[in-house]
């Protein structure tokens, strides 16, 4: 039996797990930046996604609404926006690490 496909599959799982662990471990930004990001989330994002983040012009940003959505895809949406929709790119205002932290916060329900 050729163990090549099995070995490649195991390596793929290891890489995916490492990627997940890296995203799951997004370190919170130092104060006062963390407070600024929370304010941006609730006021700027909340202007479209609803002040309680339960939806409005934009879709809900609740843990239930984000369940099953890949974190890297959500980060890309935050940073690059969605062309042809009202979702603007936030890259000029956020680093990738900050966007990862916000996504983690939203997915875990800690953005209240």
Automatic annotation (TrEMBL):
The keyword Cell membrane does not apply. It comes from the Bacteria. InterPro entries: Cyt_c-like_dom, Cyt_c-like_dom_sf. It holds the Pfam family Cytochrome_CBB3. Keywords: Heme, Iron, Metal-binding, Signal. Residues 1-26 form the signal peptide. GO terms for molecular function: electron transfer activity; heme binding; metal ion binding. Residues 30-110 form the Cytochrome c domain. This is Cytochrome c. It comes from Aquitalea aquatica. The lineage of its organism: Bacteria, Pseudomonadati, Pseudomonadota, Betaproteobacteria, Neisseriales.
